């Protein structure tokens, strides 16, 4: 049978595996940091209405510049981010993964390199590979914080073209202090200068504020965001960025024409009309996240401080066996390959209880 390696694929893709968080049909799925609540009925109705309107015009290509959507995203950012932004500062795409891909196509590519401080979001390295960008794995402390001196040294030595800072970080959950981001931005400018991408996919769940105001006067800093988490709309595939208008102009050089379907634009606009309702779920999930942290500690687990809608917990002599045992009890969590640690997304109170029961049993078995 013909396999991948029999095809003339690019050398750097040979022997590699695709991104693959398991999508298993089990009672409790807490493995991909989704919002556990389905969309409220009035929003479902509004989506149907807006999509019906859009459907009439599906014979035409969608608005290539997504003007209405970017205007509404700019309003959302201005309202929640403590910084005034306009449509010229905002760009949207199919998930923040596509935002990151467009940024790497624009600022990375063959002969260029990107750095991330690992463990962090694994797709940064995978999208780098897909775009022919070299990847540098930067350091983190034992407690998963960023060691500023070590990180700045890695930037100075490697002179990357793109620097990823994920805050709150995935899979560890901790936020990066504003001063660290500022210092790394300065280090990146002194070394190259390079683009700094602040990945704020989980910022709405944070105890602290968005770093959006940092785009002012820093044209090489991009804040990347998504509707997959706080808006509870992972299935929609809508990510966006905020940056200097020149960055928005630059990504147009690589974006596919009409990349955002009219159906996606209509759906996202309907969701943005319901922002306040959706953000109420964020408050509930933050409370459940804090409960998970407290209860896991009470059970005797180590837990990394979390500013996200998930919690990293351990330590296990063999994290993969622990993952399997939790799965055997009907609860799917995530093994990100961080030795000794697993990650659980905050679910509904009942889902979290089922998860905590599974860990309690596992701990009992191991003691
Ligand atoms: N950034 C981070 C840190 C993430 O964890 C994720 C999703 N797990 C994304 C970006 C991508 O999200 P999406 O493409 O759904 O916007």
Automatic annotation (TrEMBL):
Top-level taxon in the UniProt lineage: Bacteria
InterPro entries named among the record's database cross-references: Aminotrans_II_pyridoxalP_BS (IPR001917), Aminotransferase_I/II_large (IPR004839), HisP_aminotrans (IPR005861), PyrdxlP-dep_Trfase (IPR015424), PyrdxlP-dep_Trfase_major (IPR015421), PyrdxlP-dep_Trfase_small (IPR015422)
Reaction(s) this enzyme catalyzes, per UniProt: L-histidinol phosphate + 2-oxoglutarate = 3-(imidazol-4-yl)-2-oxopropyl phosphate + L-glutamate
Residue runs in coiled coils: none
Domain Aminotransferase class I/classII large: 28-358
Residues modified to N6-(pyridoxal phosphate)lysine: 229
UniProt KW Transferase keyword: yes
SUPFAM superfamilies (alphabetical): PLP-dependent transferases (SSF53383)
PANTHER family: HISTIDINOL-PHOSPHATE AMINOTRANSFERASE (PTHR42885:SF2), HISTIDINOL-PHOSPHATE AMINOTRANSFERASE-RELATED (PTHR42885)
Subunit structure: Homodimer.
Protein name: Histidinol-phosphate aminotransferase
């Amino acid at each position: 049978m013909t396999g991948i390696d029999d095809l003339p694929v690019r050398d750097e893709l040979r022997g590699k595996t695709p991104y693959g968080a398991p999508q298993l049909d089990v009672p409790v799925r807490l493995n991909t940091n989704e919002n556990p609540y389905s969309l409220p009925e009035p929003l479902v109705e509004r989506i149907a209405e807006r999509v019906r309107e859009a459907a009439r015009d599906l014979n035409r290509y969608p608005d290539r510049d997504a003007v209405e959507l970017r205007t509404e995203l700019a309003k959302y950012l201005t309202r929640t981010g403590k910084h005034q932004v306009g449509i010229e500062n905002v760009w949207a795409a199919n998930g923040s993964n596509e935002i990151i891909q467009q940024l790497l196509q624009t600022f990375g590519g063959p002969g260029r390199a990107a750095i991330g401080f690992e463990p962090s979001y694994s797709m940064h390295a995978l999208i780098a590979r897909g775009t022919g960008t070299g990847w540098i794995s930067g350091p983190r402390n034992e407690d998963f914080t960023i060691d500023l001196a070590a990180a700045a040294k890695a930037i100075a030595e490697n002179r990357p073209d793109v620097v990823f800072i994920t805050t709150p970080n995935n899979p560890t959950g901790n936020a990066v202090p504003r001063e660290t981001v500022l210092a790394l931005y300065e280090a990146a400018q002194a070394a190259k200068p390079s683009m700094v991408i602040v990945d704020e996919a989980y910022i709405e769940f944070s105890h602290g504020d968005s770093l959006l105001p940092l785009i002012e006067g820093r044209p090489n800093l991009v804040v990347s965001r998504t509707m997959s988490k706080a808006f509870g709309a992972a299935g929609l595939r809508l990510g966006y960025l905020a940056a200097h208008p020149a960055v928005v102009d630059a990504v147009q050089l690589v974006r596919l024409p009409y990349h955002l379907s009219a159906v996606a634009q209509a759906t996202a606009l309907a969701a943005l009309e319901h922002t306040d309702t959706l953000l109420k779920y964020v408050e509930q999930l933050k409370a459940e996240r804090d409960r998970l942290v407290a209860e896991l500690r009470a059970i005797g687990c180590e837990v990394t401080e979390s500013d996200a809608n998930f919690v990293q917990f351990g330590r296990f002599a063999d994290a993969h066996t622990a993952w399997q045992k939790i799965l055997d009890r009907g609860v799917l969590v995530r093994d990100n390959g961080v030795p000794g640690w697993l990650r659980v997304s905050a679910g509904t109170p009942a889902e979290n209880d089922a998860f905590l029961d599974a860990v309690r049993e596992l701990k009992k078995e191991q003691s």
